[in-house]
Amino acid sequence: MRILCIGDIVGKPGRRVLADCLKGFTREQSIDVVIANAENAAGGSGLTPQMFDKLRRYGVHGVTMGDHVYRRAEICQTLATSDRIVRPANLPAEAAGRALTAFEQDGRRVAMFSLLGRMFMKMPVDCPFHAADAVLAQVPEDVKVVVCDLHAEATGEKLALARHLAGRVSVVFGTHTHVPTADEQILAGHTAYITDVGMTGPYDSILGRQVKPVLAASITGMPHPFDVADGDVRMCGIVADVDDSTGAATAVQRVRVDLPPDSGEIGDGEGDDGGA
Description:
About 25% of the residues lie in helices and about 25% in strands. It is built from 6 helices and 13 strands. The strands form 2 sheets. Strands 1, 2, 3, 4, 11, 12 and 13 form a 7-stranded mixed beta sheet that branches. Strands 5-6-7-8-10-9 form a 6-stranded mixed beta sheet, covered by helices on one side. The N and C termini lie far apart (about 35 Å).
């Protein structure tokens, strides 16, 4: 099985590169399953049911969320009813959505969950290490392929969580910082890992936002609207090869797909890309 994991989809530019490029890339690379962190898909923060449906049509099979999971309250119904999306597993049990899901894609079953880090993160959450153990105890016995999204700020915390999960899950991919790292590897001879896959969105930016207002806010200390940028749009992630009979990853590589410059005006017909 070949699994593509992509990072934080940022606003219209991120959705546009998926609309234009994802299906072609999956065909060319013989990708079986696509898992994407989409917590920034709506205006750079949050996700709506309409955008979730669009991502599914573009070719995303499973969606993970992070600390902006509830930024758009209307997504709660989708979180509660769809088996193709998960909220972070270390939120309280009463939080809307599934901590774990197992879905079938072309006859193959994949389990998926996400975890929020605690270091330098504003959202209070339970221990991700204990939450991971609880989730893994619930994975159906017949599901061998398990993918985890580590949505965290600190690289050390991501590495510690990955080492805790090594040998027990197939893929661990980091998200949240929007900057790709160069440490893709196989841990414990079983688990494909990268600290951060980067974002799917505009790289002529500061973490997906227009440069000038972010600089102005940083220099003056005054608030400015951080609107989503639109230049140098890329889809970034990893492709992991996994033995679906054992769940062990055998290879992992970073991937990058650029939105062609002749793609026209950035957008996908969906509005709502204001500042956060």
